[in-house]
Amino acid sequence: MSNPNYSKEKKVGEGTYAVVYLGKQLASGKSIAIKEIKTSEFKDGLDMSAIREVKYLQELDHPNVINMIDIFMAYDNLNLVLEFLPTDLEVVIKDQNVLFTPADIKAWMLMTLRGVYHVHRNFILHRDLKPNNLLISPDGIIKVADFGLARAVPGPREILTSNVVTRWYRAPELLFGAKHYTYAVDVWSIGVIFAELMLRIPYLPGQDDVNQMEVTFRALGTPTDKVWPEVSTFPGYNKLQIYPPPSRDELRKRFIAATENALTLMENMLMMNPHTRWTTAQCLECDYFRELPEPSNPADIKLSK
Amino acid sequence: MSTQMITGTMDDYDDNKDMCPICKTDRYLSPDLKFLVNPECYHKICENCVDRIFSLGPAQCPYKHCDKILRKNKFKTQVFDDVAVEKEVDIRKRVFNVFNKTLEDFNDNLEEYNKYLEDVEEIVYNLDHGIDVEKTEEKLRTYEELNKQLILNNLERSKQAMENFSQRQQFEKDMKLKKKLLERQIEEEERFNKEWAKKEIVNRLSAAAAGTAGGDTNDVIEGVRNTVKLKKSSARRKLEELNLVLKNNPYFANTNMAGAGGAHPRSSIPYTPFNGDRDLHQRFALQEDKYSDPLVQELEKRSDYTASGFRSDYVYERVLTEAFMGLGCVISEERA
């Protein structure tokens, strides 16, 4: 506790490489979270994800992206001072006591898309979007968090690893092992989150990497060269079972409460071909956000009884 | 007629929910057993017993200690499981049929209207809990006598509102059905067209092969495709028209107006997709297909790049952004 500006009060979580404490900024009395990264245990220096997190959070400043207030060293450990965000979308989706309306979903989607749009416009790929990483502030604002897998958009020659994004939210090009993917992988994740918000259960829950392909294509149709040029050149494409893409009517039946515009948005975010998948800007401009009901006021969404 | 009495006597009989306490018939043995209640005392009696006991005219309730005289035509099916709820709903229905003023009748004076509602609630409560029943009933009757015309008018009005609503529902249902039919029609037509095109191509090609007509294979295929395109389609046009009608339909417009009006005071800031946070004054405009960068152009052709979703415009946009970044940014101003 060597930093005089902040206090650590309670341990709230522990991961493989970091411990999270609840604390206060002493000068202002504001609640904060301190992520203490255990550098001393790593012989090879700092963990990769810690470097990524610091690197990109420093750059980003947006109401829908988590705010890093400060960084300091104490006892050989790196400490990130982050704004305090009490809950996340995963908790909300799983809590059977919380009822939310289509207007609430719209508000969440809107905030998420704005946050991710800002990330993309700064040439950063998030690569780990899932409900668990969309934190919610005390006044209901969604904040995109956990930049441990983020990276800057590579130069055209650079090779990317396809082993990113939590499995259920992984875009088809990643499942195929693409090495030159784009922002489109993040949009896919948001599309799956959108579906999950409407269903309140995970939309594409694959048990392992192979099964994830099966589940994804059974729900959304197996891509062919016609809708996605050159998809058949991916290794592993040939072994696939061909499923037809779902018709509008089938989608309507699956998402009973969704409006036509909501389905259009979801379809375009879950487009197989990353070329034709909508960008975050296109998503934000779609009719779904303009039609009634208006998105709820974030502060009015009740997250607990 | 107090609730206490009801529950008191019910306890003696109501051990088994699915058994008629009078004839002891069980739902297990006769699955189509139906229970009826009479608003006089709300004792539950099965249909057969009602027929048996009350067919010859009014008779006393067969429950022990209940001395109400019941008539067969007043019996009805119980909607709510809880007798107390059933009773309150009935009372409300009766009272609201008489006390049916709306806000308009008070010239939109909310305070007066609320006072009136409070009075009505008082009457309902009294009747429900057996307080001053005689007096309250008297009140109800006097009011009814005094306001006969008004009550009738209001009844007419609410009837009309109901009618409007059901009309609208019917309209929307019809439209939906029509839409579905059209969509199916389009799908079918498309399938048919596809097949027709396939056949036509084969036919024409075989004709060409036989030497009766010249022409390149590709030309033939192109020709057939174009005809198919032109064929699309009366159903599609109809669907578009229908969508237009739906958008402009009078019922819908009404609700939209109401929705917009209701929502307005809440948010004074109009909705914009980016919440006002979008750089529309970039210092460059991305051109399409106008850059010649051999490296990128070559990469664009490689299948592993194409399949991954690689897009040259992303590359150019980034390069241009970085090239122009910081231009027009005065450091001394930023510092201040």
Gist?
Chain A has 305 residues and is of the alpha+beta class. Chain A is 30% helix and 17% strand. In chain A, strand 4 (68-74) and strand 5 form a beta hairpin.
- Number of H/I helices of chain A: 9
Strand order of the largest sheet of chain B: 2-1-5
Number of helices of chain B: 13
Would you give the CATH topology of the largest domain in chain A?
Transferase(Phosphotransferase), domain 1
What is the quaternary state of this protein? heterodimer
Mean pLDDT of chain A: 88
- Using DSSP, what is the number of strands of chain B? 5
InterPro entries (chain B): MAT1/Tfb3 (IPR004575), MAT1_centre (IPR015877), Znf_RING (IPR001841), Znf_RING/FYVE/PHD (IPR013083), Znf_RING_CS (IPR017907)
GO molecular function, one term (chain B): zinc ion binding
Domain RING-type (chain B): 20-62
Subcellular location (chain B): Nucleus
List keywords for this structure.
heterodimer; A: 305 residues; alpha+beta; 2 domains; 5-stranded antiparallel sheet; 30% helix; B: 336 residues; mainly alpha; Herpes Virus-1; 3-stranded antiparallel sheet; two-stranded antiparallel ribbon; 3% strand; Znf_RING_CS (chain B); cyclin-dependent protein serine/threonine kinase activator activity (chain B); zinc-finger (chain B); Znf_RING/FYVE/PHD (chain B); Znf_RING (chain B)
Question: Can you describe this structure?
Answer:
The complex is a heterodimer of chains A (305) and B (336). Chain A contains nine helices and ten strands. Chain A has helices at residues 48-59, 89-94, 102-121, 172-175, 184-199, 209-220, 248-254, 260-269, 280-284; strands at residues 6-14, 18-25, 30-37, 68-74, 77-83, 87-88, 124-125, 134-136, 142-144, 151-152. The model of chain A has no long low-confidence stretch (mean pLDDT 88). In chain A, strand 8 (134-136) and strand 9 (142-144) form a beta hairpin. With 305 residues, chain A is an alpha+beta fold. Chain A has a five-stranded antiparallel β-sheet, covered by helices on one side. Chain A has a three-stranded antiparallel β-sheet with strand order 6-8-9. Chain B has 336 residues and is mostly helical. Chain B has helices spanning 3-13, 47-54, 83-98, 110-129, 133-146, 148-210, 217-231, 234-248, 250-263, 294-301, 303-308, 312-324, 331-335; strands at 35-37, 45-46, 59-60, 69-70, 76-77. In chain B, the strands form two sheets. A three-stranded antiparallel β-sheet of chain B has the order 2-1-5. In chain B, strand 1 (35-37) and strand 2 form a beta hairpin. Chain A binds chain B through residues 62-63, 114, 117-118, 123, 153, 156-157, 173, 176, 178-184, 228-231, 233-234, 247-249, 273-275, 277, 281, 284-285, 289-290, 292-295, 297, and chain B through 180, 183, 187, 256, 259-260, 263, 266-267, 271, 273-275, 277, 295-296, 299, 303-311, 314-315, 318, 321.
